[in-house]
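user:
I keep going back and forth on a fold encoding question. Separate attempts, laid side by side, tell us more than any discussion would. Would you put together a sequence-and-structure record for a protein of your own picking? Write it directly below this note and I will take it from there.

assistant:
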Amino acid sequence: MSREDKGTTVIGFTNRNGQENLRATGQPGTDHLQTVYVLKCTFCGTSYGANGSDIHLRKCPECQGGRPGIPGPLGTA
């Protein structure tokens, strides 16, 4: 892990808003040089896609008023 890496892209990481990193998709993200990860809300169970750079601050789009997830072939949670 590099000095800049805060561990947010490690599978199993859960941010302070209760959003757990389930897996990397390999799908290109919507931000420069980012890829999409599947996050799951530990409160309501909603799964959605997010850029790796956003994992640390994401809020659930279903129960916390967060931004919508990135659409695409994310698979099942």
Observations:
- The chain has no helices and three strands.
